[in-house]
Amino acid sequence: MKSNIAALVIMSASLGMISSHSYAQVAGTQPLGVSVEESTDLILGWSAKKSVLNKPVYNENGERVGVIHDIIIAPDHSVSYAIVAANQFLGVAHHDVAIPIEQLDYTNGKLVLAGATKAAIKAVPEFEYTKMKATPTPRSEFPHH
């Protein structure tokens, strides 16, 4: 019994050394994927799909005022706007509006847009995707790359 446990420990240690050598990322040599520092950012970050998209937006009084439909990312890679659908309740047609991301907060487990009401969001000019470019601009066309 002891020899079986010892063999498992030795085999596990050997496999661990083999796998760590074959999959280790070395700074400056990894052509695809993320660096070790970026991995930490991933672990500490959050998923837009799981945490934000299609989630309700409330005002500071706890009243539901819309739903997040999309996140707009600027060419500099910053998250710039949340597209909030107003009036999407019980299958009624919605009115998408662009809200600067810094106006949203995450409070008590809810996305909060302070000062918002259904009427106020409905009064914001409608956001139209047709005004956006159909395809992203290549990175080489930006002056800072």
Order of helices and strands: HHHEEEEEEH
SS-derived structural category? alpha+beta
- Provide mean pLDDT, rounded: 74
Tell me the span between the first and last alpha carbons: 61 Å
Helix content: 25-40%
Q: For the report, how would you describe the main beta sheet?
A: 6 strands, mixed
Query: Globular, elongated, flat, extended or rod-shaped: what is the shape?
Result: globular
Rg estimate, integer Å? 23 Å
**CATH topology term of one domain:** SH3 type barrels
Percent range for β-strand residues: 15-25%
- What is the helix tally? 4
Number of strands: 6
Q: In the CATH hierarchy, what is the architecture of one domain at level 2? A: Roll
- CATH top level of one domain? Mainly Beta
Query: Going by CATH, what is the homologous superfamily of one domain?
Result: PRC-barrel domain
> Which blocks of ≥5 consecutive residues have pLDDT under 50?
1-22
Pfam family, one: PRC
Protein name: PRC-barrel domain-containing protein
Keywords: Signal
InterPro entries: PRC-brl_dom, PRC_barrel-like_sf
